[in-house]
């Protein structure tokens, strides 16, 4: 396991134990970076307009399109470190 993978795995754990729950925009960013790091580019159709949460998640993930897994992991780790303070 690479150093980046170890840092990413620790950041995932840390994200579940933050002192304060991040705002919705930041939560979507955390979700999108995690999905891009672990699954790659978003696939499939965008959820319907009445499923607001799923559509917001899809849109956030789609904004990460083309970002490598390594860059997504790096960005995820940096975001969680910033939120930890």
Which properties best describe this structure?
single chain; 85 residues; mainly alpha; Acyl-CoA Binding Protein
Which structural class do you get from the secondary structure elements? mainly alpha
- Percent helix among the residues? 55-70%
Number of helices: 4
Q: Give the overall shape.
A: flat
SSE run = HHHH
Uncertain stretches: none
- What do the pLDDT scores average to? 97
End-to-end distance, in Å? 26 Å
CATH topology: Acyl-CoA Binding Protein
What is the CA-atom radius of gyration, in angstroms? Answer: 13 Å
Q: Tell me which CATH architecture applies here.
A: Up-down Bundle
Strand content: under 5%
- Please provide the count of β strands: 0
What is the CATH class designation? Mainly Alpha
**How many separate domains?**
1
Q: How would you characterize this protein structure?
A:
The chain is an all-alpha fold and 85 residues long. It has a single domain (3-84), classed as Up-down Bundle (Acyl-CoA Binding Protein), CATH 1.20.80. The protein contains four helices and no strands. It has helices spanning 3-15, 24-39, 52-62, 69-84. The longest helix is centred in the middle third of the chain and has 16 residues, at 24-39. It is flat, with a radius of gyration of 13 Å. The model has no long low-confidence stretch (mean pLDDT 97).
